[in-house]
Design a protein that fits this description.
Layout: H1 2-29, H2 35-60, H3 68-86, H4 89-113, H5 118-140, E1 145-146, H6 154-162, E2 164-165, E3 168-169, H7 170-188, H8 190-200, H9 202-207, H10 212-238, E4 240-241, H11 250-260, H12 273-292, H13 299-322
Antiparallel strand pairs: 1-4, 2-3
Keywords: Cell membrane, Membrane, Transmembrane, Transmembrane helix
Transmembrane segments: 12-29, 41-59, 66-83, 89-111, 118-137, 165-185, 206-230, 250-267
Subcellular location: Cell membrane
């Protein structure tokens, strides 16, 4: 029995962490907790969670992407401008995903093909993407990228972003659908095994016939596509983007959600499933701070402490397995 509990803890500690935070939320919120407030956890986790899913794929290979917050806002600004021209929800969705994938491809080629450090490459593109976004806004003489409310597709777009099916928001359902797809990819396909192999030991992966360059490029493209999809979800929900603040710290929050979800920063270990719980844990922290009436400036302090605890937990588990 003890061995089974230890095995469950080592593989699914992210569920225990989430449940612990959720129980704290219930205790603090008390009678004010409703089914709507519970389902809103999914809604408020969906956009960051979609980005975190892509980030998780990169971290499984042992790399990192610091540019997701900036590519999120640049793709968002360009998609809004495009939507205002074509007045098509489907084409806007395609545009957002393609833009995100292209930004990810740039990172992937520099990291995978030219062997440049992912930290430096994505730090550079983080600065470039947001700078371009702010420059375009300045040239347009506006303060925000906003969907034209006079368009015939404005209301259907807004209704999708703020609608729900059986009390679960459409945005949350998209997030869960992407999560299920990536869970399948990482657990039941050869591609998923290559991703884990690359993160575990690159030299061994090469000897096993894994195309390391292509695999590394592909996870950056996949992360970019997830970021682009998250961009579209944000547009549908709020119909506007602020180039200075939208997506701010998303790169850090998405990495934190991945780590809290149990994926090792060194690569090769962890489950995509954990990212769902890691992201929701982050959302619950915000709600707990709000319910306690704490200063919002302490939000990141609490998240930082929890992140340190999650990393410490990973190190303890790694050490216990090696002994």
């Amino acid at each position: 029995m003890v061995k089974k509990l230890k095995s469950f803890w080592s593989q699914y500690n992210f569920i225990v962490i989430f449940l612990g935070i959720f129980l704290i939320y219930l205790a603090i919120n008390g009678s004010q907790t409703t089914w709507t407030s519970v389902t809103n956890i999914f809604l408020h986790s969906a956009i960051l969670g979609t980005i975190a899913l892509g980030m998780g794929m990169i971290i499984l290979t042992g790399d990192i992407d610091l540019s997701v917050g900036s590519s999120f806002v640049l793709a968002g600004g360009l998609t809004i401008l495009f939507f205002n021209k074509v007045n098509s929800i489907f084409l806007a969705l395609v545009m957002a995903v393609l833009l995100g994938a292209v930004f990810g491809l740039i990172n992937g080629i520099l990291v995978g093909k030219f062997r440049m450090p992912a930290f430096i490459v994505t730090l550079a593109t983080m600065l470039i993407y947001r700078s371009i976004s702010q420059y375009m806004m300045n040239e347009l003489g506006q303060t925000r990228y906003s969907v034209d409310a006079t368009l015939s597709k404005y209301q259907p777009l807004f209704q999708f972003g703020n609608g729900n099916f059986l009390t679960i928001s459409y945005i949350a359902l998209v997030f869960l659908a992407v999560a299920l797809l990536l869970i399948y990819v990482t657990t039941s396909t050869k591609y998923g095994k290559r991703v884990y192999a690359l993160g575990s030991n690159e030299k061994a992966a090469l000897l096993a016939g894994v195309n390391v360059v292509w695999t590394r490029i592909s996870v950056f493209v996949l992360c970019g596509a997830c970021t682009g999809l998250a961009t579209f979800l944000k547009i549908a929900k709020d119909t506007s983007f602020d180039p200075a603040t939208s997506g701010k710290n998303y790169e850090l929050y998405s990495i934190a959600a991945v780590v809290i979800g149990g994926i090792s920063m060194t690569g090769g270990r962890g489950k995509i499933l954990g990212i769902i719980f890691g992201t929701m844990s982050f959302t619950l922290i915000d709600k707990i701070i709000t319910a306690l009436g704490m200063n919002a400036l302490l939000n990141d302090t609490v998240k930082g402490v929890i992140l340190l605890l999650a990393v410490g937990l990973q190190m303890i588990q790694k050490k216990s397995k090696s002994e």
